[in-house]
Amino acid sequence: MLEILTIIYLVYIFVALYFLSLFTLTFIQNKKEIFSAPKSNKIYSLSIVIPCYNEEASIEGTIQSVLDSDYRGLEKIFVVDDCSTDNSYKIIKKIEEKHPQVVALQTPKNTGNAGGAKDYGAEFAKTELIGFVDADSYPDKEAISSMAGFFDDPLIGAVTTRILVKTRNNFLRKMQAIEYKVIAFTRKLLEFLDSVYVTPGPLVLYRRKAFLEIGGFDKKNMTEDIEATWHLIYLGYKIRMSFLSKSMTVAPDTLRKWFKQRIRWNIGGYQTILKYKNCFFRKGMLGYFILPFFSISLVLGVFGLGILFYRTARRFLLSYLSTKSSIASQTAILALQDINLNPSVLNFLGAVLFVLGLWFVFFALNLVNKHVGEKENFFSVIFYSLVYILLRPIVIIVSLYKFFTGKYSWR
Questions:
Q1: CA–CA dist 296, 202 (Å, integer)
Q2: Least crowded by CB within 10 Å, which of 60, 155, 267, 358?
């Protein structure tokens, strides 16, 4: 048993160090291109679709942020109300009366997921590009302009951008703000490897021709944005990311909402893996990197948490039994010769991995914060690295249970 766990632990360390090394080398090779974005040779016509369900608190601000865009090719903003039960549609209709670019739409019946509302709005778009913005997200003024130039390459199917947390008014949101920045940095590095695996909803642009080729979003998938990205790559399209721009989004403010969101993300990931499982080690970067990387990322966390719990529980149990035995036999609980100050190889490798992982987090945050003019508290970053990330394996385990039992829904 111990030998098997040691092997698993060593594989875990090796894979984690491999990806850290890969990302580091990728950054060194492409560091001058991180904040670059190609200038477009033309003004592409663009429609933006904003799906909305019970977002009366944010929908007006979202629409206004899109209206404030400096992109000259923006023609229409289709705001799709998915039969909300609040005042969302009334707010959208009032905005439509003031702004001719805004078109208020409502689905015939509630679709039950974001993909359904997005596809409904996309039917009305006849422009060269179709963009999607979540109803609780706020693209900055230059965001779309910095993304459009990538489409001069006919192989580009979609372009994403940095997604950052808008409001950091409690500790959970501060943790997510750190997480989103690290994810944004990692996603840009993946772009240099032709391996961006998701185009998140807070802001994404699709080439309409490519979007029609994939048949729109998979409405059965819990993460339609991941599936659409993989489908584009499967057809030979490439995905790019503008690190120069950003879209702010409202992050969950309670653990319950956070868990619900992350479980949905994970279940959607499992659905997408199963859908494209036949592409493993086939179909270019989708099969040779994205599928293995995405799958390993899900598995690694569970193994890491399992090994940590096992080693902690084992040490606690041995200490308890040893102490109980010493008290019963009236012998010394701890003798000088029992103290071992020589670290084991496994502990050493674990410490190295933690230090390098912490360095990666600080480096990513420093790079992003210099550009957006923000900063994180040192102790918040430490807590993020020591405690917050341990929630991910728990989410993975719960989402696996829900996935295999079928006890899940989009809303």
A1: 26
A2: 155
pLDDT at residue 322 is higher than 70: no
Six token digits for residue 276: 């494209």
Residue 221: left if φ>0, alpha if ψ -120 to 50, beta else—which one? beta
- 59-86 per-position pLDDT tens digit: 999 999 999 999 999 999 999 999 999 9
Strands 156-165 and 102-106: unpaired
Tokens 């090719």 belong to which residue?
73
Tell me which residue of 115, 55, 51 sits closest to 77, measured CA to CA: 51
Angle at 113 between CA 238 and CA 286, to 5 degrees: 25
Q: Report which of 230, 85, 245, 83 is spatially closest to residue 161, judged by C-alpha positions.
A: 245
Residue 221 · residue 152 · CB < 8 Å: no
Nearest to 135 by CA among 249, 254, 260, 262: 249
Q: What's the rounded Cα separation, in Å, for the pair 376 and 383?
A: 12
- Give the span between the Cα atoms of 113 and 101, in whole angstroms: 25
pLDDT tens, position by position, 151-171? 999 999 999 999 999 999 999
Stated length of the chain: 411
Q: What are phi and psi of 180, to 5 degrees?
A: -65, -35
Q: Which residues partner with 399 through β-bridges?
A: none
Which region among 43-57, 85-99, 262-276, 350-364 has the lowest average model confidence (pLDDT)? 350-364
| Structure tokens, 155 | 């192989």
Burial of 37 (0-12, 13-18, 19+ CB in 10 A): buried
Rounded CA separation 15/304 (Å): 12
In the chain, domain spans: 44-291
d(CA 345, CA 353): 12
CATH topology for the 44-291 domain:
Spore Coat Polysaccharide Biosynthesis Protein SpsA; Chain A (3.90.550)
Name the residue among 55, 62, 54, 51 with its Cα closest to residue 117.
51
C-alpha dist (Å) from residue 33 to 40, 192, 365: 17, 9, 18
